[in-house]
Queue: 2 jobs
Job 1
Amino acid sequence: MFSILQNSITNTILMFVLIFIVFYFFMIRPQIRKQKIEKKFQKNLKKGIYIVTNSGLHGKIIEITNHFCILETITGKIKFEKNAISKELSQLRYENLLKKNKNNNKIKEIEFKENIEKK
């Protein structure tokens, strides 16, 4: 009787350990890696790059302070925390936002970038 109870407890503990290992490698570890990459990106922000915020707002960084960035968008200037910036809007990540000009084979950026630079 005691050996059956001990065997059952051992199996239960082993099952919980295996579930934790699976959660760690498939959920926790990738999230930690993603957070490290995002923090490194936010630390290396530069004036003049086009970015996307966590809420999906697209804009160009025109000023950077320790904790804030001022973005220029089509509608005007907006102040954001650096933590709210999620990724860079580049040709590699967002090829669908670029269109090719057939006359001179130059890549022309879409409307919002053109409007920002006109201001």
Job 2
Amino acid sequence: MNDELKIPDLTISANTYEEAVAEGMRQLGVPADAVEIEQLEEAHDDTLPGAEPLPGVTVRFRIKMDVLLDHAKRHLERILELMGIEAHVEALTKRRGLTLNIISKGDGSLIIGKNGQNLDALQYVLNRIVMKGGREIVPLIVDSENYRERHYTKLEELARRTAKRVVRTGREIALKPMPPSDRKIIHLALRGFRGVHTISRGEEGNRRVVITPEQGAPPPKGVIRGRRPMRRNDPRSRGSHEGRREFQQSSGQPARNGTADSESGGENPSPDSPSQPNS
């Protein structure tokens, strides 16, 4: 697995170099020494020979991962010290983001908390400190005893397994409510998965990822969109009168004899129709 973290450069155009730098640093929100700033070549109007440079400047910003990781490590160590926790922080650059793994000298479960809630709180505070309220272009992940790595792997497996089911049945599936960090893992895991699309629905606290069939994608072979696929031994899948009679007898429906059913409004209900409640 490729653990290389790829963060795109930020490009800002403004009237002056100073304005571009100020806007870029505002958007990034990271320490100044963690950013490499480069002014790009002046643009010219290629349609006019010998034309003057176009007004304004363009500046490119590239984050220095090692410097930013060192900032985050020192801040997290200070937070743990203030909390009275004796631990060592291991700083790593992983595929999902800059990872700070807390190696505790005591009970690691106290740092992790129930369902990782303590890690979530530490991660939130650290991001607010290091990113200074910026766009969080670089993911900062706080982990302990590889809890998040195991958790994220399970989420990715769940995402792929559910996506295969959506492709097979042609029906959307809603996962259980998740925090934003978990939903992001689901979205990223299925970003290149053919035949499905992911969206988030619901209010925060009850917000969940819904995996839907990709619009325009043909339904899987043998599947009619909007219906549950029939099993091999399902009597409804047989074309004979014997199969239909067997299904009607097992479900309590009267056998069809060509007469109208007065309780269904003059029509016999199809095997796929839900039974009508008694009035």
